[in-house]
Write a structure and sequence with these properties.
Layout lengths: L6 H28 L1 H4 L3 H13 L2 E2 H8 L3 H13 L3 E4 L9 E4 L1 H18 L8 H24 L1
Helix pairs in contact: 3-5, 3-6, 4-5
Length: 155
């Protein structure tokens, strides 16, 4: 097992990761957007539906915080999803003015179809990647995100 990198070398290597993550995210977004007519949702609606699928019903502020997006943007995505019949509002016993957002049956089926397509596309990734390599990648990205969140909170 190799030794942890010194801060200056770690910074250089993580900069390489950023150079890949940005274009990767934009490419995935473009693919989802190009499938929008077929899949029936935008990237923003997809993100809301996936979060609701993973975490259950949430308020708009909770969705926005978890995605590090503005409440206004998330509210627009929720409104779009509601118009499409993918989500519905539910009373929130903890807060009268902040209703819960939950998936409908059509919303569950829609996000399941999008995820199935994405998994099919991700299955095409080559390179003979191992589970350990993917675990390491997830660990690195999680650490990077946590460090940036700490910096963001410190302002």
């Amino acid at each position: 097992m190799s030794e942890p990198l010194k801060p200056e070398m770690l910074a250089d290597r993580l900069a390489e990761v950023y150079l890949i993550v940005g274009p990767l995210y934009r490419k995935v977004s473009r693919i989802v957007e190009s499938d929008q007519d077929r899949m029936g949702m935008s990237v923003g609606v997809r993100a809301v539906l996936d979060q609701l699928r993973r975490e259950g019903q949430r308020t708009v502020p909770q969705l926005a915080r978890a995605q590090d997006l503005s409440r206004q943007f998330v509210q627009r995505m929720v409104n779009d999803a509601r118009r499409a019949g993918f989500v519905e509002f539910a009373e929130n016993p903890a807060h009268q003015r902040s209703r819960l957002i939950r998936l409908t049956g059509p919303g569950q089926r829609a996000i399941d179809a999008v995820l199935a397509r994405e998994h099919q596309l991700m299955g095409r990734v080559g390179g003979g990647l191992t589970g350990d390599e993917v675990d390491a990648t997830v660990r690195v990205l999680t650490q990077m995100l946590a460090a940036l969140e700490d910096i963001d909170r410190a302002g």
